[in-house]
Amino acid sequence: MVATNRIYDIGTSVWLDDLSRDLLHGTENFDLFLLERNILGITTNPAIFSAAISAGGDYDRQLEELREENVTAEEAVYRMSIRDVQEACDVLAGVYQDTHGRDGRVSIEVDPRYAHDEEKTINQARELWKQVARPNAMIKIPATDESLPAITTALSEGISVNVTLIFSVERYKQVIDAYKKGLKLAAQQGRDLEEIHSVASFFVSRMDVEVDKRLETIGTPEALALRGKAGIANARLAYHLFLDSFNDVDELPPRANKQRPLWASTGVKNPEYPQNMYVVELAGPDTVNTMPMDTINVVNEMDQLKGDTLTYADEKAREVFAGLEKVGIDLDDVVAVLEREGVEKFVTAWQELLDSTEEKLNAAK
Predict the structure, then answer these.
(1) How far apart are CA 73 and CA 63, in angstroms?
(2) How confident is the model at residue 249 (pLDDT cuts 50, 70, 90)?
(3) Which residue spans within 40-160 are E strands per DSSP?
(4) How many Å apart are CA 131 and CA 86, to the nearest integer?
(5) Is residue 290 a contact partner of residue 15, using CB atoms and an 8 Å limit?
(6) Looking at the annotation, which residues are catalytic?
(7) Domain 3-363 adopts which CATH fold?
(8) 280 has pLDDT over 60
């Protein structure tokens, strides 16, 4: 049994944080590829599609067709991305059915340039949901102040949402409120709540990168001893909030689903740390961990796991945060930087993708 199967037995679904035409078509049997690794879902983001579409010639045939239609670079990008997401959704349709919609999901993100525009975000979420036209799709919407109402609206309209770019427990509280509000509105409209699913994506390794940089600047033994601990502690505190928020099913409308925490950015950035630490230390019931392929490979080479490392870990996580504050880490500032940079990085990747696509569309004109 591969380790991802054992992780699933603990309660964590493994999703792949990658998608490309090469992965879909270059793999001899994509269904078997996913099955052998117990990969139960797929997430994407602007950086992933930028790398996929900009590299190689896997999209050349479709680009030629789009060039003949004289489409804009933006429309071309979405047409290519949507086709990939549709194919992946079809491959994972069986998983979606077998898990009653919990897994078998494929995420596609709204334009990151709309992160601070509620109206544009919800309008594009509706359009993507309509264009992908697969029940196991998920629309990724960032957890910015401006996009939180769009999350509620999307859910109220029956759109399954992957809430992304969450970096703090305080923001997660707002995301949970937006989710519950959306479900109540959906119930009032007579929608089948069993069909509406959502995950809340916490970015883990980015927290450690930012905090570790500050700890190294402080440089004391107490500060250096806390390196590599902030991301896991943050996620564990978020999980404790999840347990508190969804423990009483009577607070949710009938047939409603819990919004599961999803651990994102789980590829370890520091080579000094174990490459599987954001998997082993964040395993527990009702969670998702989306990983790059390299991390999945490392995990599946493991012989042993620690079991559930989330349910009773909140006290230890609080001690880590108390230690960080004691040595002078301003956690509010860390979160503000990460939220701002998170959007900026996706906007940059998106613009690079548009520029690259524009060049390819113009190449044969």
Answers:
(1) 10
(2) confident
(3) 41-42, 105-109, 137-142
(4) 9
(5) yes
(6) 140
(7) TIM Barrel (3.20.20)
(8) yes
